[in-house]
């Protein structure tokens, strides 16, 4: 029971915001009201059809031709109304689904992407596996199944209320007579239907309960398998060069093994459940007749009455067995709710990480003249100290080379200065209104046109075309100028050196105040690297360049040289002796 209440609370927390949203609540509420109204109208038609049953079968029994014809016509009217309602119910339901889904997707994308939360969530580890599945599949399933189950439940409750009344009065008309003795008691047909359905529900629940967890796991294993397939696709070149196909196949089959093992468990459980539900459904066809037959054969009941009673009995029993028939859907839905709730929690944890008391605080200071780190200690997510930078000051236009052994924490220090690495303590102040750009060794090039890849993160047409062409020429990629509108996976097509040139072109177009280059030219030959640094110097004279690099040829291209040196259990940033470039 507490589980049910928790599930309902979580469901409400996930579903309600859409119907309260400023953007779409009117349309959402209207569509929902229409879908509910149609559902109720359909139940109304079922009640009318039930009453029609009595009249129609009586007309057949009495061979009353005129009544038969008029009842047939009446049925046609009901059927026509039912068809129109069924069509519009589906149509409006789908309309509601896509609007609701658009809203929820936008919300989740916002919470995931805003303010670097996706990256912090990733740093937190396995808190939210496969966010893509949460956003693409789970939101869809939550809405689709939620509406189906919600409307099914509503329809069952209303059907139950309507038909229990009918069945109650029919119980009085059809006394239960066995062996000449009357055994009936008020509403005995209702009680029979109730007991039958409750037995079914209890057994279904007992047999089917493990399906909730199994379905949850299944989705997870499937997503995991898909994720690893995508990894292989993305790293195809490396795998082919290393001849890693056999290892990959083994790894993928291993992942698939988990999919299969869980699937077997689902199959076994499903088999048990289907044995029960299929049997239950078969018995349901004849059970009402069995219950009413004593009254019918005792002679006090017409054929119409029998048919109406069996129909009403079936409706009550169907409504009561709603839980039995939709158990699989409910199990799946419960798993979806659990996953979305888990994703929600991970989103919140990611956001909370940005505001924990002990973290690296990066703030924009109106009076600051330089990027400055004060008592900065950068740590790993697990809390291990990595880098200490007591008093780093990077004035505008400075050119600093950051050195230090591999793994000493240079890239992590850049992440901390750029404000995406919260683990640690101390402060970083950035002059307000100054822009910062970080170029990593392997730049991110979104799939799309080349123009979009260069302009990223600005919009594809943010820079005049002739300027883009000219800048491409200056970084040595003039040959690509006439392919700016070509859509491709540029990150795979261009060599790493070309990608690095492209990233330099991006930096020149954006002209940031602070440009951090994390081995951003390491794939270029030394003369090209020197030429590109010269270009940056000429094109962005005001921009501070802070580079990480291991080559000694970088030294003369910078004014200052700082290094990370081991100091106890961490590396400390110190000014290196001997000014580079001197
Ligand atoms: N997300 C993370 N979780 C745990 N450890 C991490 C994470 N990111 C980096 N590290 C660890 O922090 C240490 C410093 O990594 P970092 O990439 O900053 O070093 P680096 O000095 O830039 O190295 P290189 O010169 O080889 O590029 C490494 O030991 C690395 O394994």
UniProtKB/TrEMBL annotation:
SUPFAM superfamilies: ABC transporter transmembrane region (SSF90123), P-loop containing nucleoside triphosphate hydrolases (SSF52540). Its main location: membrane. It holds the Pfam family ABC_membrane_2. It is found in: Cell membrane. Keywords: ATP-binding, Membrane, Nucleotide-binding, Transmembrane, Transmembrane helix, Transport. It comes from the Bacteria. Residues 371-582 form the ABC transporter domain. GO terms for molecular function: ABC-type transporter activity; ATP binding; ATP hydrolysis activity. It is a multi-pass membrane protein. The chain crosses the membrane at residues 30-52, 72-92, 147-168, 188-208. GO terms for cellular component: plasma membrane. Residues 30-332 form the ABC transmembrane type-1 domain. PROSITE patterns: ABC_TM1F (PS50929), ABC_TRANSPORTER_1 (PS00211), ABC_TRANSPORTER_2 (PS50893). Belongs to the ABC transporter superfamily. This is Inner membrane ABC transporter ATP-binding protein YddA. It comes from Rhodoplanes serenus.
């Amino acid at each position: 029971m507490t589980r049910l209440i928790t599930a309902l609370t979580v469901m409400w927390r996930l579903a309600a915001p859409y119907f309260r949203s400023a953007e779409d609540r009117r349309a959402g509420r209207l569509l929902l009201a229409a879908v509910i109204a149609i559902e109720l109208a359909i139940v109304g038609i079922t009640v009318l059809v039930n009453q029609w049953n009595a009249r129609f079968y009586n007309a057949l029994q009495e061979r009353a031709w005129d009544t038969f014809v008029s009842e047939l016509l009446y049925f046609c009217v009901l059927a026509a109304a039912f068809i129109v309602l069924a069509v519009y119910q589906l149509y409006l339901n789908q309309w509601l689904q896509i609007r609701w889904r658009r809203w929820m997707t936008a919300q989740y994308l916002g919470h995931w992407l805003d303010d670097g939360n996706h990256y912090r969530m990733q740093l937190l580890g396995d808190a939210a596996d496969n966010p893509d599945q949460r956003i693409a599949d789970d939101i869809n399933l939550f809405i689709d199944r939620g509406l189906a189950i919600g409307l099914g439940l509503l329809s069952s409750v209303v059907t139950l209320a309507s038909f229990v009344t009918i069945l109650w009065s029919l119980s009085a008309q059809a006394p239960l007579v066995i062996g000449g003795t009357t055994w009936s008691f008020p509403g005995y047909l209702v009680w029979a239907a109730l007991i039958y359905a409750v037995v079914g529900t209890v057994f279904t629940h007992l047999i089917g309960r493990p399906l909730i967890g199994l379905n949850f796991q299944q989705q997870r294993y499937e997503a995991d398998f898909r994720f690893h397939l995508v990894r292989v696709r993305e790293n195809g070149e490396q795998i082919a060069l290393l001849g890693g196909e056999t290892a990959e196949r083994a790894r993928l089959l291993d992942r698939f093994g988990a999919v299969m093992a869980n699937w077997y468990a689902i199959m076994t459980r499903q088999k048990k459940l289907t044995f029960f539900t299929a049997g239950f459904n078969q018995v349901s066809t004849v059970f009402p007749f069995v219950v009413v037959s004593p009254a019918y054969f005792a002679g006090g009941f017409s054929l119409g009455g029998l048919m109406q009673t069996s129909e009403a009995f079936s409706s009550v029993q169907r409504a009561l067995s709603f839980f039995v028939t939709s158990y699989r859907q409910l199990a799946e839905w419960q798993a979806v709710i659990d996953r979305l709730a888990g994703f929600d929690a991970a989103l919140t944890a990611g956001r909370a990480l940005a505001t924990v008391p002990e973290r690296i605080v990066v703030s924009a200071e109106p009076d600051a003249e330089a990027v400055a780190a004060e008592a900065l200690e950068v740590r790993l997510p697990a809390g291990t100290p990595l880098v200490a930078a007591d008093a780093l000051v990077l004035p505008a236009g400075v050119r600093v080379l950051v050195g230090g052994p591999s793994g000493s924490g240079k890239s992590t220090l850049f992440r901390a200065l750029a404000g995406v690495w919260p683990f640690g303590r101390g402060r970083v102040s950035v002059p307000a209104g100054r822009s910062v750009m970080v170029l990593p060794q392997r730049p991110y090039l979104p799939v799309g046109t080349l123009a979009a890849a260069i302009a990223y993160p600005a919009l594809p047409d943010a820079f005049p075309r002739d300027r883009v062409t000219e800048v491409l020429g200056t970084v040595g990629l003039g040959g690509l100028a006439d392919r700016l509108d070509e859509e491709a996976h540029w990150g795979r097509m261009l060599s790493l050196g070309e990608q690095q040139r492209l990233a330099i072109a991006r930096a020149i177009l954006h002209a940031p105040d602070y440009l951090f280059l994390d081995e951003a030219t390491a794939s270029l030959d030394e003369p090209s690297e020197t030429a590109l640094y010269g270009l940056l110097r000429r094109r962005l004279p005001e921009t501070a360049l802070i580079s990480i690099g291991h080559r000694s040829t970088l030294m003369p291209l910078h004014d200052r040289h700082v290094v990370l040196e081991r100091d106890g259990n961490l590396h400390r940033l110190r000014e290196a002796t001997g000014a580079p470039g001197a």
